[in-house]
Amino acid sequence: MPMKKPAIMSPDLSLAVQYAAPAPELPRWRLRRWAMQAVAGIARTRQDGGLPALRSVALTIRLVEAGEGRRLNREFRGKDYATNVLTFEYGMDAEGCASGDIVLCLPVLRNEAAEQGKHILAHAAHLVVHGVLHALGYDHIDDEDALAMEALEIDILGRMGVANPYQA
Predict the structure, then answer these.
(1) DSSP assignments along 81-119, one per residue
(2) CA 107, CA 74: separation in Å to the nearest integer?
(3) Is 8 a domain residue?
(4) Which of 124, 135, 148 has the alpha carbon at shortest distance from 57?
(5) Cα 96 to chain center, whole Å?
(6) Number of domains forming the structure of the chain
(7) Does residue 3 lie within any of the structural domains?
(8) What integer pLDDT is reported at residue 44 of this predicted model?
């Protein structure tokens, strides 16, 4: 008789949302749903890879205008332009809580969606998932890590009904 996989325990999520810019199309409940899907996807991946489970996750998502996005990118990454998503990963504390901050620059997000012919909500969902993955330790510095991160993003977004953002 085949062994049954244990149920995936999704970590507790504490999420704060800060609106430094108006974003009526991005209410807290929607951002929370996307973040929870990303955390659940990471939990599945960790379990499938034999890694210890995350106990809890504490995130802040801050929605900003171009000026703040540019300032943060310049101060923390040395790049003098506003980027779509900027993530600050703080690691895991002694109690097993992983934490991070995710900054979404609304004008960049909206411009990219229009330029790429994507629905604003699909692009925003992708950037939230991308930011959560960064906040929880994923990166795309080398090709192997980039492929793994993209595959996880595609899986998470697909489970939400969002098309692969890397296909034209």
Answers:
(1) S--SEEEEEEEE-TTSEEEEEEEEEHHHHHHHHHHHT--
(2) 17
(3) no
(4) 135
(5) 19
(6) 1
(7) no
(8) 86
27 domain residue, yes or no? yes
CATH number at residue 65: 3.40.390.30
Domain boundaries, position 35: 13-159
Dihedral angle sign, alpha carbons of residues 33, 24, 110, 142: negative
Residue 165 lies in a domain: no
| pLDDT tens digits for range 111-154 | 999 999 999 999 999 999 999 999 998 999 999 988 999 999 99
User: How far is Cα 44 from Cα 65, in angstroms, rounded to an integer?
Assistant: 34
Which one, of 43, 55, 58, lies nearest residue 13 by Cα? 58
Query: Which H or E run includes 146?
Result: helix 143-159
Q: What is the mean pLDDT of residues 19-40?
A: 97
3-class secondary structure, 164: coil
**pLDDT digit string, tens, across residues 80-114:** 999 999 999 999 888 889 999 999 999 999 999 99
Query: Alpha-carbon distance 134 to 113, whole Å?
Result: 21
Q: Would the pTM of this model clear 0.85, i.e. be above it? A: yes
Q: Pull the structure tokens for residue 75.
A: 């101060």
